[in-house]
């Protein structure tokens, strides 16, 4: 029928469920199903009678060219992508067939397309994922395995084989697979995990060690999961990851961390790290012990104000800020730390700025060594040196006194003897002999004096007692009553009757005797003598004060020599210059001291410091 | 026998005073030998003589360890006085303290007077020990 040739639309073809089009030999569209028109996105156009190239300008030309083949009687089919007007890519399976008339003449071509975009896209996605997975598996060294519970066959992927260091054609079994695990913990664990997974589907993921075919030990992460179908476990699938490097570096890090912690905790010094706000972010065992806490966590996050005395915390915080600001460490500074409870510790402290990657201070590293005991030892030693130095000085001075005094007498002896030998005159000889006797008496007296001084200084540990001051004073006054009465001395005693002093009894008597007789000896010729006693306690010492209104001493000139041996400052017949020297020796032998203040023609005050019993 | 106008002996020890006087008597002829118990007394007398233009001593025998004012205290004050006459001072001491010897060296260099230093015992005073007398006086 000519009608068929002229572009009458066949209603039959329009309704075909498949996307089919009929083109004449000029490749002009004659018939088309609605599905075809829709599939090729031509609904908005007048399509019939148009050339296919014109209709599908953007279509793959190879695809359209193959239409010509079917005009020659060939069947063609294939796959093509097609971008519609909205820019969506579609995938078509296509087929081109020759269109015959009833006389088997080719009058055109039948074009069929099948939109497979959906299923083809899935396929592509799978391929894409697979290749992605493969490259990922190679990078991350993750292999997969699959164990079929029905066939009991174990399948390893290439990566899994690579990790095991077996050849690509290696055929594993569940037994050989498990045997690759290192004997002991690893093999026991995997056996148990696989068993459990098979028994009740428990998934697993465990870090274990294998020994490869080439006998290398490796850390791997083995994970597995059961797959069931219709309530029955059919297979185990899992991954197998080479984590040797990670685990080894992890172990190394852990070891380093442990080493560092052990080191820090066994250091006999306090170590801490503080953040910018001086809050502790790391402390070692010594620091915990010093601050009296069991758990490091009790210190972390705390600042110095929460742990130490306020003023100490202020100093410490200022140091921290300075170190962070200047980036200059404090090294080996002697610091005193006072805790909240008041206990004080001397530390040798170093503070080092904690730098971040950019070289900015992020905090402070602190190292403090407790040198309290060392410090105490040092002080003891220093005291000892001082004591020794003073003793040494005293000894030298005493040696000079001895040598001077003995020398002056012996010099006199030899001079007088020299005279005596040459002297002819009898009266002069007698005079010289008298002189010699005098010199001998002097020497005896000097020796007695020296002996007394020596005995004071050697009997340092003579027992001291608590003595009632007034009782002793009354005793001395009684002994001196003749002297005191003779010079009409007035004594004013301001000391309470209960007042006591800790002293060697004999020394106290000697001291009081010397000071009172001294006051009488050096009374002022123009007025009656008044002596005043006072006593009080101060700073661990009992201070006895004796004040007179006597001649006084020029302290500027003679203050230094006042307590020297054989130093006298008055032209007094009975002043021998030994009393104050002995007094000073007695007071010092008991750990005390004696001080004088005086004004010429006004009077003198001596203050004697006795060490208290509790201060010994 | 040498003749000297005036001599001071400053010493609190009567034996030394006796000895020095005795030894002086052997070498020198002097009508004015004055003894003092300490530096203060000697200084006071010297100042009195200086103020009243009386004869000043030519030689002073000086002890170091004395009460009230010792030998060094005396020297300290004496050297402050404006005395044009060159006076010889003989320190006689039993001290063997090196500090005393050094003090002597120091004083010796700071004055136009002649200062000598002798350790006891002294057995004889030679003529040269009282020499060095300022003839201008």
Written overview of the protein:
The complex is a heterodimer of chains A (616) and B (137). By secondary structure, chain A is an alpha+beta fold. The relative contact order of chain A is 0.04. Chain A has 5 domains: 2-115, PAS domain (Beta-Lactamase), CATH 3.30.450.20; 123-248, PAS domain (Beta-Lactamase), CATH 3.30.450.20; 267-375, PAS domain (Beta-Lactamase, 2-Layer Sandwich), CATH 3.30.450.20; 394-458; 465-615, Histidine kinase-like ATPase, C-terminal domain (Heat Shock Protein 90). Chain A starts with a helix and ends in a 5-residue tail after the last strand. In chain A, the strands form 5 sheets. Chain A has a 5-stranded antiparallel beta sheet with strand order 2-1-5-4-3, sandwiched between helices. In chain A, strand 1 (19-24) and strand 2 form a beta hairpin. With 137 residues, chain B is an alpha/beta fold. Chain B has one domain: Response regulator (Rossmann fold), CATH 3.40.50.2300. Chain B has helices spanning 14-27, 39-51, 71-78, 98-109; strands spanning 2-3, 6-10, 28-29, 32-36, 59-62, 88-93, 114-119. Chain B has a 5-stranded parallel beta sheet, sandwiched between helices. In chain B, strands 1-3 form a two-stranded parallel ribbon. In chain B, helix 2 packs parallel to helix 3 (71-78). Chain B is globular and about 35 Å long.
Question: Which helices and strands occur, and which strands form pairs?
Answer:
The complex is a heterodimer of chains A (616) and B (137).
Chain A: H1 2-5, H2 11-14, E1 19-24, E2 29-32, H3 34-39, H4 52-55, H5 61-71, E3 76-83, E4 89-100, E5 106-115, H6 117-140, E6 142-148, E7 153-156, H7 158-164, H8 174-179, H9 185-200, E8 204-211, E9 217-229, E10 232-242, H10 244-266, E11 270-275, E12 280-283, H11 285-291, H12 304-307, H13 310-326, E13 330-338, E14 344-355, E15 361-370, H14 372-422, H15 426-458, E16 465-468, H16 469-479, H17 481-486, E17 490-493, E18 500-503, H18 505-521, E19 530-538, E20 541-548, H19 555-558, H20 579-589, E21 593-599, E22 603-611
Parallel strand pairs in A: 17-19
Antiparallel strand pairs in A: 1-2, 1-5, 3-4, 4-5, 6-7, 6-10, 8-9, 9-10, 11-12, 11-15, 13-14, 14-15, 16-18, 19-20, 20-22, 21-22
Chain B: E1 2-3, E2 6-10, H1 14-27, E3 28-29, E4 32-36, H2 39-51, E5 59-62, H3 71-78, E6 88-93, H4 98-109, E7 114-119
Parallel strand pairs in B: 1-3, 2-4, 2-5, 5-6, 6-7
